[in-house]
Amino acid sequence: MKQPGPQYLKTMVETASPVRNIIALYEKCLLHLSTARKSLAAGDVVAKAESLRKAMDILFYLDNALDDAEPEAAHSLHESYRMILAQLTLANSGNSRKALALAEKWLLGLLEAWQGIAPGGKVRNPTDPPP
Question: Is the Cβ–Cβ distance between 115 and 23 less than 8 Å?
């Protein structure tokens, strides 16, 4: 499948709703976790570490972007991100498949919650095969 051009992606991000942009970040994070899982299974610790770093960068970005105007929601999301990041740290340092699977499960739950409030409803799970 051919990747969309940079201008198309830029336009897509600039015109999407904030919720859709958050969903896109979650989806990209889940893709990195999927790659990390495959790399871990193949014994490629360098690729696993790189994929986990990218996923963690997204989570740090999402955490830092939380809106202090909604402290209750921000606190809950902050705690969720903190727990996921802790599992990813375990997955990276201990090559823990269990920790990685738990982080993926929690992140997928958050993705589904955001999809539930997104304009137009649920979008495709990034780890599902293309239609």
Answer: yes
Tell me which residue range forms the domain holding 107.
16-117
How many domains in the chain? Answer: 1
38 in a structural domain: yes
- List phi, psi (to 5°) of 41: -65, -35
Residue 9 placed within a domain: no
Write down the pTM of the prediction: 0.80
The answer to whether residues 25 and 61 touch, using CB atoms and an 8 Å cutoff, is yes
Cα separation values, 122 from 1, 36, 62, 103, Å? 23, 25, 20, 21
CB 29 within 8 A of CB 59: yes
CATH number of the domain bearing residue 99: 1.20.120.340
Question: What are the residue ranges of helices labelled H in the chain?
Answer: 6-15, 18-42, 45-64, 71-94, 97-117
Mean pLDDT by 10 residues, the chain (131 residues): 60 70 96 98 97 98 88 90 98 97 98 89 52 41
Within a domain: 103: yes
